[in-house]
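Request: Could I get any protein with tokenized structure?
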Amino acid sequence: MVALSLKISIGNVVKTMQFEPSTMVYDACRIIRERVPEAQMGQPSDFGLFLSDEDPKKGIWLEAGKALDYYMLRNGDTMEYKKKQRPLKIRMLDGTVKTVMVDDSKTVTDILMTICARIGITNHDEYSLVREMMEEKKEEITGTLKKDKTLLRDEKKMEKLKQKLHTDDELNWLDHGRTLREQGIDDNETLLLRRKFFYSDQNVDSRDPVQLNLLYVQARDDILNGSHPVSFDKACEFAGFQCQIQFGSHNEQKHKPGFLDLKDFLPKEYIKQKGERKIFMAHKNCGNMSEIEAKVRYVKLARSLKTYGVSFFLVKEKMKGKNKLVPRLLGITKECVMRVDEKTKEVIQEWNLTNIKRWAASPKSFTLDFGDYQDGYYSVQTTEGEQIAQLIAGYIDIILKKKKSKDHFGLEGDEESTMLEDSVSPKKSTVLQQQFNRVGKVEHGSVALPAIMRSGAGGPENFQVGTMPQAQQQITSGQMHRGHMPPLTSAQQALTGTINSSMQAVHAAQATLDDFETLPPLGQDAASKAWRKNKMDESKHEIHSQVDAITASTASVVNLTAGDPADTDYTAVGCAVTTISSNLTEMSKGVKLLAALMEDEGGNGRQLLQAAKNLASAVSDLLKTAQPASVEPRQNLLQAAGSVGQTSGELLQQIGESDTDPRFQDMLMQLAKAVASAAAALVLKAKNVAQKTEDSALQTQVIAAATQCALSTSQLVACTKVVAPTISSPVCQEQLIEAGKLVAKSAEGCVEASQAATNDDQLLKQVGVAATAVTQALNDLLQHIKQHATGGQPIGRYDQATDTILNVTENIFSSMGDAGEMVRQARILAQATSDLVNAIKADAEGETDLENSRKLLSAAKMLADATAKMVEAAKGAAAHPDSEEQQQRLREAAEGLRIATNAAAQNAIKKKLVHKLEHTAKQAAASATQTIAAAQHAAASNKNPAAQQQLVQSCKVVVDQIPMLVQGVRGSQSQPDSPSAQLALIAASQNFLQPGGKMVAAAKATVPTIMDQASAMQLSQCAKNLAAALAELRTAAQKAQETCGPLEIDSALSMVQSLEQDLQEAKAAARDGKLKPLPGETVRAPGGRWVCGEALCTLGQHLASLPGIAARDVAQALRSLSQAARGVAANTSDPQVQSAMLECAGDVMDKAGNLIEEARKGVGKPGDLESQQRLAQVAKAVSQALNRCVNCLPGQRDVDAAIRTVSEASKKLLAESLPPSTKSFQEAQSQLNQAAAGLNQSANELVQASRGTPQDLAKSSGKFGQDFNEFLEAGMEMAGQSPNKEAQAQVVSNLKSISMSSSKLLLAAKALSADPAAPNLKNQLAAAAR
């Protein structure tokens, strides 16, 4: 799908961003916040995307639940990312104005819920907003019908009548179905809140003072302006209550005639009747009535009016029997629609709302259909038809809503019932169940009926009477907890979903750990043994890295959930949980394979499976306690985390990978407990401060800080238990250091709180001393961790001095151009080498063996000479700081000193660099394993299949490289003095860099397309860690290469000799019938021939400049060829083919060994002609041996037979005369056509078979040879039909050409089958087939 390019405006910043058209608006907003720093403000829920328009009314807010393509956006459209909240001024009927923040994207219905909730009104659906309009605007709206004077006069009469009657149509109600923006309401406009529907107002009393006040004001205004016609006596009674409300109890001295402004207390028609005395009498009758009670009485009296709760509209209806329209009032209430006399407001006719079948509104009329309740329609002329329809629809909606809620038995009747909320699936659905708390008494009764006894045929019989046991009662009571918990936030719901899915994955993994993996039958030759060993090493490495990740993520969960739940980063917790479950799932597969291999080797695989089960069980317990809704104490989580650490250590012991010294782990735990003890002392001192503090607020702060300090130290101890078995992992070290930082922060908080709470120097000094003890204990712990991280104990006797020399020479190399810095570093270097020389001399003096003493003194002298040269070069650089030549001399002297140091310190530098490479390679392999696991877990939530496929492909390449890297590390560790093992590690590291880098790039590109935030964060972190590990691996491999480079030719020769020995063992196993194919081995040979040929060319080209690299490449290519040859032999049942294949492959190894030996001899004399000739002869012998080896492959011999068949058949074309034809021309032509079609079909099959199995190639090449014979016979027959020599010659020439093409096709098919990876062979094959 083509991406959508949109311009996103955020304040004054405009960013162009790409989105998938199917992206939800919610996700688009999330992506904008993640990628644009300016958008990271406020709460995400308060912001949205706004599509603006030239007309402000047409601008729309995009709904979060809809996709971008729903709005038909085009490339280049501008969207505003801004706050949805806007201020809205609301005027109450009593004149007060309130400003409420509302959501601009919501409709008026939703906004009313917000407004009413702020004011304190529960039944928001009975209120609405009125837009107060100026008189000029009213004239614009109402004065549009000016066609003639008569019509204008008629309209003016209706307007005057409306104003006199105060009908509802003069109120400009807002449309509930549209937003404020769509109705043109700007930020400065004030809206009137008014009751529109009088449905539940009967229930409003003194318990709801807010609504009571609104009802009172609205009723008072309607009585005074004449909307509710009342008698003079009633008007005075209302005015008396109004006086009580406004002035309090009646006061004879104050409340006298002339005190009141009658126009504020009586309708205008009664002002001149001098009713002030009567009003004061009514006021006096109120006695000491409170304001609230007076309002209740006023509203109660107003409800008794016949016009109360009626919304009136002035309409015109047809006069009965005449073609004339007369004014009429149409009233709408919660129960009925009524026709009312416009003069007296007497009800003429009523229709219940339940009798209305349907209604219709047009711009100039309104029609009611009563169905069977009345014949004909009732239709009136009005311009307010839409308002009338909305009012009727509103009442009906309220009636239906109330009826529906009453049908749901118990919600209104049982106010104390408990609601149990069960979250079924986060963000999808929630089940609500009502628990009734009704209490009743047990009723006793009998279900037995009285007996009826009748005599039978045999007369009366005996019967017995028994009694039932007494009824037993039992009362069970309990308490609901879950109903009182606060609702989960969206982030907590997302974490709940992640934990639930992770627990399912953990249980599924645990269930698979009952049985071993099924191993294929394996032989006892060197390759089979090597496969077992390598597979065990790879499995152990993968399990170790996965356990590292599990323990590190467990510690991360402990650290992240330490503080206030409101401040917890639940996405990061979800990422840690996802990492735990995905690694446990992958670990279970490796454990099953390793357990099977251990059983095969005579070990105890069952114990390994049980250890893995224990770890899975511990992880399951941890996930249960990590639930956001969990009410378990924090201590349970820490215990569960400690259990994960313990079971992890047991699992690593089972696989023999517990590479951390137990004494180191014990010391680590002791140091962590020492921190806890120091923190406990600090807490006691802080509590002493709290006891002496009089200010309760400050006292609370000190106690809170002390409590936090205690919690953080218990957390540190728990983290130490978790990561102790895997402390060699950098991520585990990071988590423990993070826990230490939290302790340091909490200790600092204790000190600050104590300083703020007291001025007592003695107490503060005690707190300070205790805090210093905490800091010291923490430093001891961190130093212990750092010691392990840097490699623990020194490698050799002179480790510190060689370390300094190594680092300082690096600084000199990087400071080229800065003479001052180079000289400064040279001084440090001179001091370090001087210390090393003195140490070597001291060893020489203490040496009893004179030969060793002489060697040490010789090394010390060589080192001293190199130091002297370096000092001279440094003086020259200091004297001439601008001289590049002097700086170069200093660099060369430092390099010479480095070489001398390496030789003098018994290869200490080389060992250091190799050790560093082993460490970085191990971390790179572990990081790659983590990244692959994260990529697999993220696949389910990736919305971009193309990006996911690219990531999967890059992961597959890395999966093939990880075993080589692991084998390189294991080989170097098991043979620390073997140059071959060290070079193999360097080669594996260098080969790992490129595919690893591609996987990092693919992972980073995939992260934005992953919907699940936890999975995206996990993949992002893994890719970041892998990128850092690759950078360190590149540097370490380069430095190790510089040190170990000269040994590459010897290493390559050693490897080739080892390969030749392995092939001899395979040949012996084949002879005894014990050669078994390894898992994954097939009869197809990889491109060993072409790789070897390429390597041979490389060896010739780079003999003078890079012989070591060329020899290494040849050795690696020969290893591939050796593996392929063994695979072919193991998958072939023919003993002759097995023997020939292994014999030829062994011959290749022998000749290749001679080649590398000659190359080594020729290194010192690149221009020697005799040496080059010998090298060329040996290379030719290797090439011939390679060809013989390839010809032994199944299928190759059959192709050779087909080539011979074609060659033999083609000899017939060399005869001087053709035999005469015995068939007719038509028969010969038909036969030739059939033969040509058969040959063409065979050629196509041959092309396909060259990419298939050797068996397919053998079958298709044999068929091709037969079809070629038939085609040649038919061609000769056709040539015999030709009447003259020229025509015959032309046919024979074409047949010769086809013969040559057939031979080329067979040769190309043979070459491609032997070496599918060789370049251009596919093109050659296609050309030959054409």
